[in-house]
From TrEMBL:
Alphabetized PANTHER family for the sequence: BCDNA.GH08860, TREHALOSE-6-PHOSPHATE SYNTHASE
InterPro entries registered for this protein in UniProt: Glyco_trans_20
Annotated TM spans: none
Protein name: Alpha,alpha-trehalose-phosphate synthase (UDP-forming)
Stored Pfam families: Glyco_transf_20
Family under the similarity heading: Belongs to the glycosyltransferase 20 family.
Protein species of origin: Devosia nitrariae
Length: 463
């Protein structure tokens, strides 16, 4: 079996980006004697051109340092102030600074140079996410002809939003240097196909780019998932149960509505608070009967748009409290910090409603984890945005348009009043969806398409 090299911005043990992935790929990397490659988390004046390898939680990891300026242009700049908002259809929140693109390319070239000496002829390379779109181009430029796959964890934009991204044609050409592009959802594959069919006719400066040739590239949806069995076990573990007991004491008879999201404008948090406010305004009988817990660890907080989202939310939660809180009752608890998975699993299990309402989301693994953590005898209800990739899998959730806060408020009311038989019935189908789309199956189905093995573990002809 070919060796596997996984490349992503963050490496295992470094924050949320690689957390779930690391768990998913640890087994595969061990089986294939592979390694992970990414940024060390360190910013230095003069980065060493050689990667440093170490063992992290049982995974061999190669890392490189970046300069502060390059990292800013590549991560906070091009990746998260241009690509992220555009891919999430928030062009109003994009900031375009021309020089960020050079930094983005420089960092990708640096990754390619540092990775080059560690690539053997049969290795299969799996590149993750929008920070790394040019990596295959850079590697091909250095003479690497190995199978290289790309997986996009976020949604693919519509044609118009893509055209608004500076250098979109080069980026699409970069994508065409991969053998397999994996997307989260069918809607993303359709958006990509639409671009491939249209193609941008010109660029602003220089000669118009020729249209991009995608003939070597296969594109398909491989929806990512969680490890539902592990989450189900975690939800009844002593650490989770401790959190459940703590919350039960605090809540008394109140039904818990739970949101868990990075503090990101794509997650629809202001709309969520507004929907909850409408629920309380329209249903006086629910006051004192229900409690919203929103967990929102800060994310990318050097970026202005993230700070503004945080300020907006502070003001909205304050308004909600002022309007509905009583000396002895609070409608909402808003926690701006991260919790470990055992505590989250306990909270998911206790919550009568899992409120997952991003305005647009690649997949949304909170939806998967919420489903997996439920008590089969007394499961809660998932209220899910139809604009999350997860909506293609969890059709038995209460699907809502998160921009329509009346609709979300009504879905919340229905969820809180849903009879147990219907909750069980819906949950069984949701859980079947979580099983069918487990993270292990995701990795297996992607990798068997990227590097099919024939008899004797030899690579099989692809086309
Ligand atoms: O959803 C895309 C993603 O890059 C995830 O992989 C990650 O969990 C999340 O965004 C957080 O990103 P960052 O690395 O910017 O903190």
């Amino acid at each position: 079996m070919s060796r596997l090299i996984v490349v992503s911005n963050r490496t295992p043990g470094k924050g949320p980006a690689a957390g779930g992935l690391a768990v998913a790929l640890r087994k595969t990397l061990a089986e294939r004697d592979g390694f992970w490659f990414g940024w060390s988390g360190r910013l230095v004046d003069r980065p060493d051109s050689e990667a440093v390898f170490e063992d992290i939680e049982g995974i061999k990891v190669g890392k490189i340092d970046l300069t502060r300026d390059d990292h800013h242009a590549y991560y906070a700049g091009f990746s998260n102030s241009i690509l992220w908002p555009s891919f999430h259809l928030r062009l109003d929140l994009a900031t375009i600074e021309g020089h960020w693109y050079e930094g983005y390319r420089r960092v990708n070239a640096q990754f390619a140079q540092a990775l080059l000496p560690h690539i053997a002829p049969d290795d299969v390379i799996w590149v993750h996410d929008y920070h790394m779109i040019p990596l295959a181009s850079e590697l091909r430029h250095l003479g690497i002809n190995n199978r290289i796959g790309f997986y996009l964890h976020i949604p693919f934009p519509t044609v118009d939003a893509l055209y608004a991204i500076p250098h979109h044609n080069e980026l699409m050409r970069d994508l065409s240097r991969y053998d397999l592009i994996g997307m989260q959802a069918n809607r993303d594959v359709s958006a990509f196909t639409e671009f491939a069919d249209h193609q941008s006719p010109s660029t602003l400066s220089g000669s118009p780019l020729k249209s991009v040739d995608f003939s070597r590239t296969e594109v398909a949806a491989f929806p990512i998932g969680s490890d539902p069995e592990a989450f189900a076990r975690l939800a009844v573990s002593p650490a989770a149960t401790k959190m459940v007991r703590r919350m039960e004491r605090a809540l008394g008879d109140q039904a818990l509505v739970l949101g868990v999201d990075r503090l990101d404008y794509s997650k629809g948090l202001p709309q969520r608070v507004e929907a909850y406010e409408k629920l309380l305004a329209n249903n006086a009988s629910l006051r004192r009967q229900v409690h919203l817990l929103q967990v929102a660890p800060p994310s990318r907080d050097t970026i202005k748009e993230y700070q503004e989202t945080s300020d907006t939310l502070d003001a909205m939660v304050g308004r909600l409290m002022g309007r509905f809180a009583e000396p002895d009752w609070q409608p909402v608890t808003y926690v701006k910090r991260a919790y470990g998975q055992p505590s989250l699993a306990g909270l998911y299990r206790l919550a009568r409603v899992g409120l997952v309402t991003p305005l647009r989301d690649g997949m949304n693994l909170v939806a998967h984890e919420y489903v997996a953590s439920q008590d089969p005898h007394d499961p809660g209800v998932l209220v899910l945005s139809r604009f999350a990739g997860a909506a293609e899998i969890f059709e038995d959730a209460l699907l809502v348009n998160p921009f329509d806060t009346d609709e979300t408020a009504e879905a919340l009311r229905l969820a809180l009043n849903m009879p147990i038989e219907e909750r069980r019935h819906r949950w069984e189908r949701l859980m079947a969806g979580a099983h069918d789309h487990s993270v292990d199956r995701w990795a297996e189905s992607y990798l068997s398409r990227l590097a099919p093995t024939g008899q004797n573990g030899q690579p099989a002809p692809v086309r």
